[in-house]
Amino acid sequence: MSKPKIVTTFTRYRDSELSAKANFIIKSMTSNANFASPVPSLGEITAADNDYTAALSDAETGGKSAIAVKNQAREKLEALLIKLSHYVTIYGNEDEVVLLSSGFSLAKGINAVGILPKPTGFSVKATEKGMATIKLDKINGAGVYQFEYRTVGTEVWTTFLSTKSMVLLQPLTSGLEYEFRVTAAGSAEERIYSDVLKSFIL
């Protein structure tokens, strides 16, 4: 079996797609414990993406000069993403789950499937104090399941990655009501989430 690798080039992306890919990577790596100190920083990439987005907009109605500025901004963004891909490769340790969590695409032949379906059979059960068992039906083509949870009334989701379709989440705060959701990650960037379930923790 070949070792999983991420795609480290971005020439295949059209101008409008590159920014979407950059944003997906930024979102995936933000607060990602697998990649604590990205090089270059996510702030640098965000700034480069903002410059590129602005230049792309100007190029739609501008002349040759605006197009040249857009091309230059694209080159800068691509260069930063390539550097970041090297960092991800090093710290990903050839672990498919970790590599997928970065938002980068896996090389052809790894999880070569389309957009994965909405999870079914999703359930949450508060088992013991401060714990909850979460499970769903297995999804063909899923390289990793991304479980997310937060206390009701808050905005930020905490992410837990697993190759298994059933996990035990802990520690959770007893007496609080939590929201849970899950999505399966494969080769496609698009992800479809389950319905959100709520449960009080023992």
Give an overview of the whole structure:
- By secondary structure, the protein is α+β, with helices and mostly antiparallel strands.
- Helices cover 35% and strands 19% of the residues.
- It folds into two domains: 15-101; 123-200, Sandwich (Immunoglobulin-like).
- It is built from four helices and seven strands.
- The protein has a four-stranded antiparallel sheet. Strands 1-2-5 form a three-stranded antiparallel sheet, with no helix packed on it.
- The chain is elongated and about 65 Å long.
- The relative contact order is 0.16.
- This is Fibronectin type III domain-containing protein.
Mean pLDDT, nearest integer?
88
Overall SS class: alpha+beta
- Please write the string of helix (H) and strand (E) elements: HHHHEEEEEEE
How many domains is the backbone divided into? 2
The total count of strands amounts to: 7
Assign an overall shape: elongated
**Main beta-sheet annotation:** 4 strands, antiparallel
Strand order of the largest sheet: 4-3-6-7
Helicity level, as a percent range? 25-40%
Low-confidence stretches: none
Instruction: Give the oligomeric state.
Output: single chain
Distance between the termini: 43 Å
Radius of gyration, CA atoms, in whole angstroms: 19 Å
Q: Determine the strand fraction and express it as a percent band.
A: 15-25%
